[in-house]
Amino acid sequence: MQLEKAKETKQDMERCRLLAQRIAEELAPATAAVLNAETPALEKALHRAGVDANPFTVAARQADLLVVEDPAWVEMPAQLPGQVLLVFTGSNVAEGWAEELARRGYYRDFRWRSRGRAQQSALYCTVQPATAEMIAGYEKELDLLRDRMVRAERTCNEEAALIERLRSDLSLSRSHARNLEKTLNEVTSSTFWKLTWPMRYVVSKSRQIWHTFPLFVLLGIFCGLMSYYFTTVNARVGAFFKKIDSPYKKWLIGGAVLGILIYIFPPLYGEGYEGFMSLMHGNTTELFNNSLFYRFSQIDWVVILFIVGTMFFKVIAMASTNAAGGVGGTFAPSLFVGAFMGAITALVCNTLFGWNLSLVSFTLVGMAGVMSGVMKAPLTSIFLIAELSSGYGLFIPLMITACIAFAIDYYLDPDSIYTKQLRQNGELITHNKDESVFVFLRLDDLIQDDGVYIHPSQTLGDIVQIMSRERHDDYFPVLDNEKHLLGIVRLNDVREDLFNPQKYGNPITRYMLLSPDTILQHEQIQSVLRRFDENHVWVLPVVDKEKHYLGYISKSRIMTAYREQLVKISQ
């Protein structure tokens, strides 16, 4: 019901647009008044065509043109403009208006011709044309009516002959109806028929879609690449906003990004339902409403580029909304992007090769493809879109596209959009037992700090005294007065001078080395182990964001905690 209503609205808008364009070109009125319009579609169309149009009121009686629109006919006003255009689609009241206009001194202007049978129109004006011109005009109208009557009579005869043939065919087929019904009942009730229906369904659908099979494969590849773009851009935009500490800056940057994108691509506003429905009905012009590119909405390659830009920037808008603190979701945007990807594929093929691919089918299949790749849920996407399409006519294309998109995106990135962030945070529990053990280890629990620090003003003799009275490891951090890490001193570096009292006065900076790397507070254990392997060390200092020394972490301590946690999980 909604689809039919939307189709009627679209047809009415197109009719008004063509009529308004013709009025502006042929009559060129500066102002116009519209009488009995149920919707303001004609007024808006006249405005877009450059005519100042308003509803017919007392103040609008001075307009250059009065347009009387069917079907809501009312009594004729007492005062009329110099030109009156009657527009009707089957009403029988037009005759009364024509007679009343003739009594008031209006004449038919035959230079205005009706175009098409669905919408008739006639122009009346106060300027009397030449007698010969009027006679020629009426004769031409009568000729057109005679021609229509002849064609209608011929059509009626043909329809009557067709009905007779159908009756004879029906009478012949009745004798075979019972035998056919009996045979079909015997076949469909057999066990073989019931067991083989899935194979027959696949074969029948394959025959129907064999010519579009390569296109659905291509669409699956595009959806897989778009899914990878979707998850990657979402992660990178989220990482960018994570670096911003102030929530006010996040809101400001996120609002600026969304404002600019929506200003350039209006379909990005909201959840995208209107844009999706416009694509489903093939009405790409509505996507350009309130857009800077509205004047180019009839150019095919501009339409394709506009849809491509909307699709790609939808991901950025969604990620910016979520990362800045808003609620943009991921499910609806994935359907939006998939619908636009399917529509682009169909539009490109229809434009370049002149094919007649169904926008509705490719839009629905594209939704399943991107959703399958983004969420790593091919079965969910297949059955969900199959239910949305109110049947299983697209079941095989859905299977082809969703599986290919899932395979490509899984090859590029095995994580879904929901598990990707968990893996980055080290919180994803998988079937890999080693990775699962590391999820339960926290860096804060493994940091060691024996409280032994060295100031850069101290000497080697001070270190000897510290070693003689306190327990220590083969590691001494050098800190300034604010506990900023300046370097480290290892026992191996001072071992040769430990038993030489003459060198006890050497400053400790002579033995200090820069740390090969530092570990940030709250860093993941997997990342810490990679640092150990890259630098070929067993101990690394731990600092906060301001480089304040918090302690040190040793590889042996991590291995010990790993073994303990592994025993707990095994038990």
Explain the overall architecture:
This protein is an alpha/beta fold and 571 residues long. 57% of the residues lie in helices and 9% in strands. The protein is built from 21 helices and 11 strands. The protein has helices spanning 2-27, 41-48, 94-103, 131-188, 191-195, 197-209, 213-242, 247-264, 273-280, 300-323, 331-353, 359-375, 378-388, 395-412, 419-424, 433-439, 443-446, 460-469, 491-494, 525-535, 555-570, and strands spanning 31-35, 52-55, 65-69, 83-88, 107-108, 120-125, 476-479, 485-489, 519-520, 539-543, 549-554. A 6-stranded mixed β-sheet has the order 2-1-3-4-6-5, with helices on both faces. Helix 7 (213-242) crosses helix 12, helix 11 (331-353) crosses helix 12 and helix 12 runs parallel beside helix 14. The two termini are 61 Å apart.
Largest sheet: 6 strands, mixed
How big is the Rg? Answer: 40 Å
Strand content: 5-15%
User: Got a strand count?
Assistant: 11
Strand arrangement within the widest β-sheet reads: 2-1-3-4-6-5
User: Helical element count?
Assistant: 21
Helix/strand class: alpha/beta
The percent of residues in helical segments reads 55-70%
What is the molecular shape?
elongated
Distance between the termini: 61 Å
Low-pLDDT parts are none
Give the averaged pLDDT, no decimals.
Answer: 79
